[in-house]
Input
Amino acid sequence: MLRKMSALFIFTLFATLPFFGCSSDTSADIADRFWQEEFADGKSFSSAADVVGLTAYWNREARTERVPRNIGDNDVSFMLDNGDVTRFVNMSDGYALTLPFGADDYEADLQFSGVRTKLRTDDRVITITHEERSPFGNDIEGWTRQYNEWLVRFIGHDGFLRSNRLQRLRPITHQSSDIIDGFIVSLYDIYIPRNENIEMPYYNIAIIRAAGEYVRFLLIVQKATHNATDEFDAMIASVRRFEQRGISHNEQVAFEPTRADYWDDATAAYFDLLAEQEHVDWGFFMHSMRSPGEADYRYFRDALARDHIALEEMLDTHFPIMPTYTSLSFQGQLSAFPMALAREYAGGNGFNGRPILQLTYHFSPGMFANFYGYTPMFNILNGHYDDHFREFAQCLIEYGYPILFRLNNEMDSDWIPWAGIFTLLDPDIFTMTWERLYNIFREEGVTNLIWIFNPNGLSFPLSNWGEWHNYLPCTSMVHVLGLTKYEFGNNLIFRSFEDLYRAIYDRYTPYFQDWIWSISEFAAGSGGERQTVSTSDGYRMIQTTLGRHDFEQAEWIRDMFYIFNNRSAEENYFVRNIKVAVWFNANDNIYIDGEWFIENHLRIGEHAPLAIEAFREGLNS
Output
C-alpha cells in the first residue's frame, strides 16, 4: 500500500518521525525510507532498489546504520552506491548527481559544508557549491551581471588565458538549455600546460541554474590528473534539483592556536608577548621599502625617511610596528627582501625598543595594472619561482629579527591576482601556493616568521565558493588571524568602528576565539574627489568634494580609541584578541581619462588636523 503512495508523501510522513531506524536496517532500508523521485538519474539509479550500499553524512558524521528519520535542521547528505557508480545526494542544498566509480573511492570533505562540498578520489577533486546570494536581483539583467562579473570574467576571457598560457580543452558551452531538461548550463574546460609539479592540471567548470531562476544556481569545479571531460559531462547531465531538507552548516569547532616549535628564541618570546599583552601595538603604512638597485629605490627611501619621521612627530609617538609591502616582482624585476631599509626602520624584537617589521608579501607582478594580464599563481604552483623563494628565505634568516609575515591578504576578493576568480574558480590554488612557500621557507631554515592569514571583512564575490573558509591553509601553517575592514568615508552614513569589528568578531570567533588577532590593514577615510557608484548595468564615477567628511573621520577615530582603551569593559569584548593595528596611511587613486584622482582619501597628515588630533589623543591617553 505504502509503495503506491507518492515519494514526496512518504518522505513527508517519515520526516515527522523523530526516532532512529533499527540497528539492523540495511542500506536498502535506509535508501527506501528517504528516497524521492528526484533522486533518480534516469540511468543508473531509478529507485531505492538500485542502492546496494549507503553512507549517510549526518552533520558530517558518516553513518551506515541508525540514521535518524527526522532530518529537521540537520546537515544531511547521502552517498548511494549501486556497485558501479555513486549517487551523491545533498539533502540540505537540494541536489543530486551521479559520480563515476563506487562510493568507496570517494573521500567526502564536509568540514565547511555550509559553503561547499568537496569530494576527492585519487585522480580528481570535485567541489560543489550551492549559490543564492547575488545582490543583483532575480531577473535576467541581474543574472547577466552576476555571471559576467563574478563567475566567468577570467575563465571566459581568451586574453587572460593567453597571458597565463592556459588552454581551452574545447569551446565554451554558453548557457545551453540542451544538457539538462529545464536547466541552463554553461561549461568551461581549461588545461594548465606547464604542470610538471601540478598534480591535477585539467579543469572542468559547470554553472547550472533552473530556467527562469536567476539567483539560485550550482557551481561545480572538477580538477583531475587527466582529461576527464567525458566523465564530467555525464556527471553534469545527471544533476537533479529538489526542495532542500535540513540546513547546511559549517563545523564550528575552534582551531587550536599554533605556537611553532621551530621558532628561534626571539620570535617565540615576541609571540608570547603579543599573546599576553592587553593593549594594541600600532603601525602606519606610508611607503613600501625597496632594495638598492630596484626601480624607484631612492624615491621610496627618501619618502619613507620624510613621511615616517614627520608623522611620528605629529602624533607624538613612536610606532612599535613598521609595515611594508613587497610583491613577487616590480617593473619586470624579481623583488628582493628590503634588507637595508628593514634594518634601518625596523629591527625590533619586542624588547629592544625598535619596531617589529610587518611584511606583506604579494604573489603579484608589481602594481598589477592589467587585470587580464599575467598572474604568477599558476607558475608558483608549478615551482617556477622556487629558487627565488629560497634566496628570499636566506635574506629573512640574515635579517635575524621576528617578522609578522602576511601573505596574500584579502584573498577572498575579486580584485587581486591570487583570488579564486583569477585561478579557475579554485581557491585551492591559494592554499597550495601558501603551503608551497611555507614548506620552502621551512626547508631553508627560516625560524623568524609569524604567519598571518588575513581575509576580507566581507568576502567578494558574494558567494559560497568565494568565502574565506575555502582559502584557509592548514592551520599549523598559520599563527595569527589578520583582519581588514575599511570605512572609506565616501557615503553619507559612516559605519562605526564598533559596527564593523563586532561583525568581524562574529564572523571569526567560532573558529579563532583563542588566537592572536591583528588588524593588519585598515583605515577610515574623509571622502575622495571621485566616487564609484553601482548602477543596474555596472559602475560609474561621480565627482565629489575631497575631504568632505573630515569631522566624521576624526570622530570615527575617537570612538575607536575609546573602545581600545577600555577593552576590559564587558561591551568591548570584540576587541580583546586584537593586539596589533596598522593604519593604511595612503590614498587609493583611480585613473580616469588620462588623469589620476583620489577615490578613497585615507591618508592623514598636516592636511587633516582633526584626524591627527584624534590620533594623538588616542595614542597618548
